[in-house]
């Protein structure tokens, strides 16, 4: 099977558009709500990908709405491309943790800087863990096993980060 040539962000947008037409802002909100615990997208990525997807014939633009908002909907070609993308190998994770990067240079931090770094990271991961646990509970209640499974990844990630932070070296 030939490679679709679409990147994961474009594929995520096509996947979200299966739910119905959305503007860029609505896609951002849907991505944050549904994918945010384990997949990040920036507004600039969304607004860069949508015209490219339209040019490829994978989405079509609807009539502009209030404040020139532009709704997009997935085309049959977009649906076929998304389904082909799902069958492609996912590739390797791109691990980029800004806390671990700073800890790698921990000998350059003051004790107070390092302590603050750990405190902020612990607060973030604790809050994110509580939020994603609630999302997973809702997904389970709704019978959405696939969303629930993806959210379990985010739960495990935040638990692992909190565990690692407890053992990270201080000064």
Features:
7 helices; 63% helix; two-stranded antiparallel sheet; 2 domains; Arc Repressor Mutant, subunit A; 171 residues; mainly alpha; 4% strand; single chain
Q: Could you give the topology of this structure?
A:
Elements (H helix, E strand, L loop, with lengths): L7 H10 L6 H11 L8 H13 L3 E3 L10 E3 L1 H12 L10 H7 L6 H31 L3 H23 L4
Antiparallel strand pairs: 1-2
Helix pairs in contact: 2-3, 6-7
Strand order of the main beta sheet, please?
A: 1-2
Q: What amount of the residues lies in strands?
A: under 5%
Secondary-structure element order, N to C:
HHHEEHHHH
The CATH class label of the largest domain is Mainly Alpha
Largest sheet, described in full? Answer: 2 strands, antiparallel
- Average per-residue pLDDT, rounded, comes to 93
Query: End-to-end distance, in Å?
Result: 54 Å
CATH topology of the largest domain: Arc Repressor Mutant, subunit A
**What kind of assembly state do the chains in view correspond to?**
single chain
Number of domains: 2
- Ranges where pLDDT stays below 50 over 5 or more residues in a row are none
Estimate the helix proportion, in percent. 55-70%
* Extended strand count: 2
Q: How many helices does DSSP assign?
A: 7
Can you describe this structure?
With 171 residues, the chain is mainly α. It folds into two domains: 8-87, Arc Repressor Mutant, subunit A, CATH 1.10.10; 98-167. It has helices at 8-17, 24-34, 43-55, 76-87, 98-104, 111-141, 145-167, and strands at residues 59-61, 72-74. The radius of gyration is 19 Å and the shape is elongated.
